[in-house]
Design brief:
The chain has 456 residues and is mostly helical. 73% of the residues lie in helices and 0% in strands. Helix 1 (2-21) packs parallel to helix 3 and helix 8 (132-150) packs across helix 20.
Length: 456
């Protein structure tokens, strides 16, 4: 029975990879979706794994083209999970009863959506046209809510493994198109790709916990090699925001581990693993810096080398002083960021409390905080920050369970949250599925302890 389950998992994993690699071949992907549905019917847990896997991608599924909301692989995988769960409706109902109270933290996001919709009604003339982003956010939150109600705590860690695996698949496929111009689907150029940098940085932080957990020597060595590959491709994105976000997540990871050790709780990455990974970090950076120096006329190495050096400007007070005093180009930050402050100022003069809704004028801002401030006003920004604090507080409460591996992945998820918050200073990512998987996984790993504490 165990061998059959492993064979089904292996076949399912092959189907997932082929589905991404052959996504442009409609009839091939149709057959693969049918195969995936059959595998999930025989092994309902794999339906959950497929949702985690597809959270690493954001491309169209080639089904139902050009509707108001594009159907992604993630949506179809979630539909299969819902169908499988309805077949086992008694177990699903029990799970929903256990999970619904913990899921109420997502009400903060429903409040943000309500504020945006109200602001659109109050300010905008073309409500239907301008509601698209708000509608997309509503659909994403509802999908995350449904997914949380259908999973159990023990599903999270294996699921995160599929998320990391999916990100590695995406890295491998994207590196194949390294020398090409960005296209609509997988032909995405790695260079200057903040989106890929974001996915890779969060997956790397989760990868840290998996390397610490794996006991098999061969698998550990293979995982370290895969980590090196993913980190190297991450550096090739040239994403300065990604470098800062990953560094922020890594620092928070080490701080939380020190806190756990001080409290004498279990969980943490062994010192040997830290030394190996530190060598990978420094070695990869040095390789790219030296390559940029030795091949100054090359296509990519000089660019990555300069992007790494330019990242240091973010930590140099003199560069900030120059940027803030440069009223024309805003220094290394760029004119478009100066322009968005001017636009935001005009919005807040007239709509400081509730903003103007999630319209293109504000969703183009290169900062999630500025976007929420312009779209939902001070009320929405405070709501978003309150959600982040509440989520982090739950994670710290969850650590008192002292369950070893659970704490390792709580650390990883909290580091991912810090990475996202750092990213949000210069980017406005909020619809990406990996963000919502992080949020839902964190709630699942912390919910039981939190409510037990409240009942005491």
């Amino acid at each position: 029975m165990i061998e059959q389950k492993r064979l089904a998992d292996f076949l399912g994993t092959v189907v997932l990879v082929l589905m991404i690699a052959c996504h442009d071949l409609f009839y091939v992907t149709l057959v693969l979706w049918l195969l995936l549905a059959i595998i999930c019917l025989r092994n309902p847990k794999f339906a959950i794994h497929s949702v985690f896997f597809f959270s690493s991608f954001f491309m169209s599924s080639n089904f139902f083209q050009n509707p108001l909301v594009t159907v992604k692989h993630f949506h179809l995988a979630l539909a299969i999970l819902f169908f499988v769960s309805m077949i086992q409706w008694k177990q699903t109902l029990d799970n929903v009863k256990k999970n619904w109270r913990a899921s109420l933290i997502l009400i903060f996001w429903m409040a943000l959506i309500a504020i945006s919709a109200f602001s659109l009604l109050r300010v905008s003339d073309g409500f239907g046209q301008n509601f698209r982003t708000t509608g997309n956010l509503l659909l994403t939150v509802l999908c995350a809510w449904l997914f949380f109600l259908l999973i159990k705590k023990e599903d999270v860690i294996p699921g995160l493994g599929f998320l990391v695996f999916g990100t590695c698949v995406r890295a491998f496929l994207s590196i194949l198109f390294l020398w090409q111009i960005s296209g609509p689907y997988l032909e995405e150029a790695v260079l200057y790709n903040n989106h890929l940098g974001f996915y890779f940085s969060m997956a790397l932080l989760c990868f840290l916990s998996f390397i610490a957990v794996i006991k098999n020597r061969f698998l550990k060595q293979f995982s370290i090699a895969a980590f090196f590959f993913l980190f190297y491709v991450f550096l090739l994105t040239g994403s300065r925001t990604g470098y800062v976000g990953f560094f922020g997540g890594l620092v928070s990871f080490t701080i939380i581990q020190k806190w756990l050790q001080k409290k004498r709780f279990s969980g943490g990455v062994p010192r040997t693993i830290w030394l190996i990974l530190s060598s990978i970090f420094l070695g990869s950076v040095l390789i790219l810096l030296v390559a940029g120096y030795l091949f100054p006329d090359g296509y990519i190495f000089p660019i990555i080398s300069s992007r790494l050096w330019m990242t240091l400007n973010l930590f140099t007070p003199s560069q900030w002083k120059i940027a803030l005093s440069d009223k024309q180009n805003f220094g290394f930050l760029g004119y478009y960021r100066l322009e968005q402050f001017q636009v935001l100022g005009e919005i807040l003069k007239q709509h400081p409390v509730l903003g103007i809704g999630l319209v293109k004028q504000v969703t183009n801002f290169h900062s999630l905080y500025l976007m929420f401030l312009g779209a939902t006003g001070l009320t929405g920004l405070i709501t978003f920050l309150f959600f982040c604090v509440s989520w982090m507080r739950r994670m710290f409460h969850g650590m008192v369970s002292d369950d070893g591996n659970g704490n390792l992945f709580r650390m990883a998820l909290m580091s991912c949250m810090v990475c996202w918050l750092c990213y949000s200073i210069a980017e406005s990512f909020f619809l990406q599925f990996n963000i919502w998987i992080m949020i839902v996984s964190g709630i699942a790993l912390s919910k039981s302890v939190l409510f037990e504490r409240k009942l005491v």
